[in-house]
Write a sequence for this structure.
DNA sequence: TGGGGTTAT
DNA sequence: ATAACCC
C-alpha cells in the first residue's frame, strides 16, 4: 500500500487529466453556520460552512498495481492492455510518447520497447482500490469513490476538532494555501450542446444567461454546471459504502451464434458468482447487456433484466448446489428476448450484471413481505407487479 | 476505445 | 430500459 503513488499536485502542463491532485474544497455556496447545509448535510453550530475535502487521485493506477505485483517492471516503459488498447501506462512510457487509450499498434510504433501486460481482469485492481478506500475511511467514514482510482474524503470534522485543540498563538502561525481546480469539458454530450450555444470556455459559461441555459439544458443541469463554472460545488461527499452492483463484461469482434453467446455468458457469470459469494450479500436482480455491431451509434447498448427467483437466491451462498444452470437459463431467456436468434446477428459485447443487493433476510418473519415476493415476469413493463408465494416458505404453513 | 461504476429519467 | 455521467 505505501508504495502506491498519488499524482503530483504541481503538474503544470500536459493533457487535461494531468491537473490531477487536488487537495481542494468543494466550495460551499451561500449558507452560513447554524442552519442545515444544502443536501441535508448539517453544518455544526457556530462554525463556518466551508468544508475541507481531500481529493485523492491515484496515478496511472493499473500500471502501479502491475509494478507492485511484478517489481521487475519498475523502470521499464509499461502499458496495460485491454483488447487492442493501451488503457493506461506508467511515466516511463508517457515520456516516450505513449498516451492513455492509445491503440496498441500506435503505442508500439511510438515506443518499440514498451512492455505490455494484460489488464482485462480487474480483480487485483478492484481489490487494491478498495484497500485504498478502506485506508482513507480510517480518517473519516465519509469517503466517496469515483471509479477505481479516485476518492473524495470529507475531513471537515477532523479539521475542526484539531483547530479547537490549538492554542491561539499556534493558530495565528498557521498558513493555508490552496486552489480551486479549473474544470474543463463537463461531459461529452453536454459539451456538444454547449458548443452549439457558443459556449466553449469556462468564462463563456460564467457569463451566459442562466434563463436561456435552463431552457436548453433543463434547470437541474443548467444551475449545476453554471455554479461549477465559478468553482462552486455544493454537492455533499456521499459515502460510497459497498458496491451496488457487480458486473463483468467482455467485448469482441464478433459473436453471431447462440452457443457462442452462451459460453461467454457462462464465463462472465462464473466470475460474478465468485465475487458475489465473497461479498456476502445477495443480488435480487440479474441483467444482461449487449452491444450490437453498427458503424455509427457505437456506444449504445441494450439490456433486459428480471428478478432472480428466490429459490435461486437461497442457493447462492451454499457452494454445493448448482446455481449456474438456473441462472444461465434465465440469462438465455433474456438473451432471446433481445436477440432474434432465428435471424442473423452480430454482437460486439456481452455483459452480465448482478444488482439490487440485499443483506440476507430483508423481510421480517411474520410480515406480509416475508411470505410474498415479486414474481419473475420479464415481459411486464407496466408498473403493476404480480406476486407469488415463496416456495421455501410453503412449509411454514 | 476497455471494463468497469453511479444517478436520473 | 435507457441515457447520461464518471474513471
Amino acid at each position: 500500500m505505501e508504495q502506491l503513488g498519488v499524482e503530483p499536485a504541481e503538474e503544470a502542463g500536459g493533457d487535461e487529466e494531468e491537473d490531477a491532485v487536488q487537495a481542494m474544497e468543494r466550495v460551499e455556496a451561500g449558507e452560513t453556520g447554524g442552519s442545515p447545509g444544502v443536501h441535508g448535510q448539517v453544518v455544526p453550530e457556530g462554525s463556518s460552512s466551508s468544508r475541507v475535502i481531500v481529493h485523492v487521485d491515484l496515478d496511472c493506477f493499473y500500471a502501479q498495481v502491475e509494478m507492485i505485483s511484478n517489481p521487475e517492471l519498475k523502470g521499464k516503459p509499461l502499458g496495460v492492455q485491454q483488447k487492442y488498447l493501451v488503457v493506461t501506462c506508467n511515466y516511463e512510457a508517457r515520456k516516450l510518447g505513449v498516451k492513455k487509450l492509445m491503440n496498441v499498434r500506435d503505442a508500439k510504433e511510438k515506443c518499440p520497447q514498451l512492455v505490455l501486460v494484460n489488464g482485462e481482469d480487474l480483480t487485483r485492481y478492484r481489490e487494491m482500490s478498495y484497500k485504498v478506500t478502506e485506508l482513507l475511511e480510517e480518517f473519516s467514514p465519509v469517503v466517496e469513490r469515483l471509479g477505481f482510482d479516485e476518492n473524495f474524503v470529507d475531513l471537515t470534522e477532523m479539521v475542526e476538532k484539531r483547530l479547537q485543540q490549538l492554542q491561539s498563538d499556534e493558530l495565528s502561525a498557521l498558513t493555508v494555501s490552496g486552489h480551486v481546480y479549473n474544470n474543463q469539458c463537463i461531459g461529452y454530450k453536454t459539451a456538444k450542446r454547449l458548443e452549439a450555444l457558443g459556449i466553449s470556455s469556462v468564462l463563456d459559461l460564467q457569463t451566459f444567461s442562466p434563463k436561456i441555459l435552463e431552457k436548453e439544458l433543463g434547470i437541474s443541469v443548467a444551475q449545476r454546471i453554471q455554479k461549477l463554472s465559478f468553482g462552486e460545488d455544493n454537492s455533499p461527499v456521499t459515502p460510497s459504502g459497498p458496491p451496488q452492483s457487480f458486473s463483468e463484461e467482455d467485448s469482441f469482434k464478433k459473436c453471431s451464434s447462440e452457443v457462442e453467446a452462451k459460453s461467454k455468458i457462462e464465463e462472465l457469470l462464473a466470475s460474478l458468482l465468485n465475487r458475489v459469494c465473497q461479498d456476502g450479500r445477495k443480488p435480487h436482480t440479474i441483467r444482461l447487456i449487449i452491444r450490437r455491431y453498427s458503424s455509427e451509434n457505437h456506444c449504445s447498448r441494450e439490456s433486459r433484466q428480471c428478478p432472480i427467483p428466490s429459490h435461486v437466491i437461497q442457493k447462492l451462498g451454499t457452494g454445493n448446489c448448482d446455481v449456474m444452470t438456473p441462472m444461465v437459463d434465465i440469462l438465455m431467456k433474456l438473451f432471446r428476448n433481445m436477440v432474434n436468434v432465428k435471424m442473423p446477428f452480430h454482437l460486439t459485447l456481452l455483459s452480465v450484471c448482478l444488482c439490487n443487493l440485499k443483506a440476507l433476510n430483508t423481510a421480517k418473519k411474520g410480515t406480509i413481505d416475508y411470505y410474498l415476493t415479486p414474481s419473475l415476469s420479464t415481459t411486464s413493463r407496466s408498473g403493476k407487479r404480480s406476486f407469488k408465494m415463496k416456495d421455501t416458505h410453503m412449509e411454514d404453513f
User: Anything to note?
Assistant: Chain A has 14 helices and 14 strands. Residues 10-25, 27-47, 179-184, 368-397 of chain A have pLDDT under 50 and may be disordered. Residues 284 and 356 of chain A are 5 Å apart (CA to CA). The first helix of chain A runs from residue 61 to 69.
